[in-house]
Fold this protein.
Amino acid sequence: MPTRRHFLQSAAIAPLGGAAQTPAASPNDRIQIATIGLGGMGTGDTQSSLANGAKLVAVADIYQGRLTRAKEVFGNDVAVTRDYREVLARKDVDAVIIGTPDHWHARIATDAMRAGKDVYVEKPMVQKLEDGLPLGMVAKETGRILQVGSQRVSSVVYKKAQMLLESGAIGELNMVEAWWDRNSAIGAWQYSIPTDATPENIDWDRFISGAPKRPFEPIRLFRWRNYQDYGTGVAGDLFVHLFSGMHFITGAIGPERVYATGGLRYWKDGRDVPDVMLGMYDYPSRGKMPAFNLALRVNFVNGAGETSGFRFVGSEGIMTVDGGVTVSKQPREAEPGYTIGQFPKAIQDQYLKEYNAKYPRQKPSADGMRPTSQDKYLPPPGYNDHLDHHRNFLEAVRSRKPVVEDALFGIRAAGPALLSNMSVFNKRSYNWNPEAVKVEA
Ligand SMILES: NC(=O)c1ccc[n+]([C@@H]2O[C@H](COP(=O)([O-])OP(=O)(O)OC[C@H]3O[C@@H](n4cnc5c(N)ncnc54)[C@H](O)[C@@H]3O)[C@@H](O)[C@H]2O)c1
């Protein structure tokens, strides 16, 4: 006897496009998930989905230690396998979380949606630019939900920043700066390698499948971010969070020009990606948002602790976004040009006469003082945007309504990040068409 009505199977045979499908069963049914890639983030994602009421039924990972750990943490009933296709073949799995290294995202997400599963895929949505639009097509064709895992777009902090910007709190936006600096070995991805990292315990061939063939070398699995074959460098790891957060706040969909530079300055441990990277991006005007410039920075050698944040620079003030939002304003003083001392005396006098008529000198008075302001907005203590992002996903799985970060949003954040890498490696700038999501000549 089936223990559970499998409400999402009805959605699998719904018309293409996937919109507005009605779940067949009671909304009280628990959504059953499986996690593919149960490392650091896969575990965090699983916990956030469970905290939102989902049930974990299976885990796939190519390292045996993660499967042992899966049972230790999530219970003996969780089915485990090294082959993710076994998870996709299970009828009791409604949705999968994909927490593998980047080079597996597109393939597993495609296979999962074709197998009728909804997908939460970690950022960056794809490792290769050309995989972005096809993945979106698969989501459309299969009618599956696809949420990309940049949790900031579900954050109340970013929502507040969006509302403040929209309401004109800093006037007209003209520039955004964002950064993510670190100064530790773990911050720079020198992750621990387990003592049982042997060929018996690791399905090495599966790990490198799709990437160049190489002999067993566990450092490349446990520190996969350090290699272009599996990861996407600081741009795909961290710029992408800054792009997705900034796109959410501004409503922008991407730059029209990308230029980035960088290099490997300190962590020379065999990695083939930069540890310092700077990117410049020209954003065209869109709707009510004027054209603006974006500058991004990641520095893993910054000599101080980890900091990350945004500065939205407007004509009337500055909005910073980190754990909260701060809007700072100060009056713009009208000053007589400071070079007038080098004008001839008669011209100085004439200039000042006109200037003083236009900006009459005020006698200092308490009433005449102008305010500067700094308004801070903080979320409740302990606020966790990751929980909100998974709630948004699971609600979409149930309601078939769109998620906050679908494939188009995902590729519009990943695209300029991946182009930043291409810009560094190929030492050139790129023109990007964010509407069509493609590189232009
Ligand atoms: N949203 C965020 O804030 C955030 C934070 C960290 C990482 N991430 C993303 O999460 C993903 C995983 O990163 P991580 O730090 O957890 O890495 P990790 O190395 O800790 O975990 C990856 C896991 O995937 C497994 N794996 C590799 N290939 C596999 C395959 N073909 N099938 C099944 N399992 C496979 C590995 O054995 C490992 O257990 C990355 O794409 C990363 O960008 C997102």
